[in-house]
């Protein structure tokens, strides 16, 4: 869960970038209602909600969670990698010939 952002003046960026999008009347009214319930203007509410969802989405896609046994196997493989197979050696040589020469 996200923590509450520190919105003190020295920690706030100046709002200069813009979003411009259309929505249905039902969604607009719902957002306005929710913003009013929190004592926020619609823009602040919408930007905060979009930003929090963006952070959650990024974290969910960028962080890999492993079970303890998988964690151990993963780091074991990193610390003690297997010897490359003939197929892998061939793939690397093909890569050098086709890609690295560009």
TrEMBL record:
Q: Entry's SUPFAM superfamilies?
A: Ribbon-helix-helix (SSF47598)
Can the keyword Repeat be found in this entry's annotation? no
Q: Name one Pfam family in it.
A: TacA1
Keyword annotations of the record: Toxin-antitoxin system
Segments traversing the membrane: none
Which family is this sequence assigned to?
Belongs to the TacA antitoxin family.
Query: Can you name this protein?
Result: DUF1778 domain-containing protein
Which organism is this protein's natural source? Marinobacter lacisalsi
Could you read off the lineage of the organism from its UniProt record?
Bacteria, Pseudomonadati, Pseudomonadota, Gammaproteobacteria, Pseudomonadales
């Amino acid at each position: 869960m996200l923590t509450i952002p520190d919105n003190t003046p020295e920690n706030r960026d100046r709002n200069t970038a813009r979003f411009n999008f259309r929505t249905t009347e039902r969604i607009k009214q719902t957002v306005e209602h929710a913003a009013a319930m929190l004592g926020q203007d619609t823009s602040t509410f919408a930007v905060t909600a979009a930003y929090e969802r963006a952070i959650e989405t990024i974290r969910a896609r960028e962080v890999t969670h492993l079970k303890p046994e998988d964690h151990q196997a993963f780091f074991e493989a990193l610390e003690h990698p297997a010897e490359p197979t003939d197929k892998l050696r061939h793939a690397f040589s093909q890569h050098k010939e086709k890609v690295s020469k560009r």
